[in-house]
Predict the structure.
Amino acid sequence: MSQNAEPSAKEHADGMQRYFHEGTERAIRAGNRGPIHLDQAGALREDILEAYWTHGFYVFENVIGVEELDELRAGIAEMLERAPVARGATVDAQGRPAFGQEFERDTYTWIPPLSDPVGGTSRNGGRHPSKMVEPVPPENAPEEIIYMMFGMCQAMDAGLRLYGHPKLLAIAESINGPDFTPFNDAIFLKQPALGGSVAWHQDGLTHWDAPNWDQGIHGFNFQVQLYPSTPGNCLWVVPDTHKAGRVDIRAMVDDNDGSECLPDAIPLFCQPGDVTVVNRQTLHCSFANTSPDQRVSLTFGFHRRSSVLGATSVLGSGEDIVYDEQRIHQRSSVIAVAIDARHQRYPKESPYRYQPFLGLEDEFRWNEDTRESVIKDYNTLDLGI
């Protein structure tokens, strides 16, 4: 091992190989993957829905076609090309005004390479109590890298169109009901040999002690994979934990001799165009990416309306904002615009019919007016519980 307190990137990569292999075997045995199958009513086929509720996740294969993947990759490339040259900079690497300054919320999040920015801290409601291993970066590594990007629906038109994907929205309805509401979205970047980790956590914060608590009360997240996702850079989950209530993550790590390599975890490895769906109560993480493979995951989630209505914001605005009907309608209108944006791009595809906006379609067409009135700064209205 290295003389450093943490392993070198190479030592970390070599030391994880056995765990990655064993995790892959567990994932294959779980068998929770396959194409999307909808029934005649347009709902997710019952056996797939049952598998999701049983294990707390599912991997849908071959969801996004090559043409759409290319458009999404191009959008990500442009966001990165136009990013600030460093944290806090106002220009990009070519000296042009950096992208994102026109939005209220920051578009880019920066971290030191291979670091864990939230593990063991009070950030995000303290839901990441155990810190991950932080391998020593290569000597030529930059001081900071882009870790996450936000606002995919306003940052790239392909991201807005993805948000209106009819099969993904049909899955959202099957899990959360036809009046489902949005959560938020984020783009996770796992740069080769540099990408940071996300410490073990459960996403939900507000409803653990609710008298009507159940395994779906905190909703779920999609992750759309733009490149091959491998055990070295992908999301890992501990199956069935969505049914266990709030788990003691610190104790689980301590009982594992202090190792972050929890014994029952499995990797959600994917091919480009695959989409994972993970219950927000499922225990999950991703390790520092000391592999040579990049991961770009477009992540967006949905809730039950009954879980959100009347709940108080937990998204760190500093204000106690109660989610009322008006707030939910405003944030949900992004779905209506996204459906129309997608239909304009893919007119032969049958669009999803979103129940809360039936009869309001003409008010939420995708055009320059709704780009400004609905899409710009939409993520200041995110619904987090």
